[in-house]
Design goal:
By secondary structure, the protein is an all-alpha fold. The protein contains eight helices and two strands, in the order E-E-H-H-H-H-H-H-H-H. Helix 5 packs across helix 7. The protein is globular and about 60 Å long.
Length: about 210
Amino acid sequence: MTFVGIKFDPKVTLVVILGTILPLLDLYDHTLFTVKAYDRFLLYFVIPAGIIVVLFREPLATYGFRWGNWKEGFAWTVAACTGMAVVLALIARRPEMVDYYGARSEDGLWGAVWQSSVDLFGWEFLWRGLMLFTLARVTGPGVAIWLQAVPFAFAHLGKPEIETLSCIFGGAGFGLIAWRSQSFFYPFLIHVFIAGFTRWVAMAGG
């Protein structure tokens, strides 16, 4: 696709727009459901997946919707969850973390974990699936890993500062694992563990 003498890749263009617009719609609370996690599942998974299948005419597996290299994926998952448990055991006890996550656990730990799982499945598919694998085709994986982490970090605005500032590195780490395993499932599992463990420690600290 060429416009005013400049060549644009239609898929990359659309994916970048989606990676910008969908989080903004989320930020401005365009909701259909009473539970925020279900709106995010629609925004971040159902809409992108529909575009891939209907518009791109490609299988979801092309964008990491598969188990991929499962041995390496599970090895990364175990290592990352173990390391993050040590880090979060200290950080999640900070007053700002206790205030933020304690106030959002009215449904109890398991209710919060369920909603986080629904929520984060879409998050991981958008950034570690659609955006990562699309950008990697034109920039290579090294650049794509960092680029997809940028909107991911901004999507954390409003959360405790220490968490938001770390997300450029956490998002890149998730991207690396997704690329190495060729699947977004493993970053998803790690992300759910981090969300659940953070709430557990924060609730205990409160």
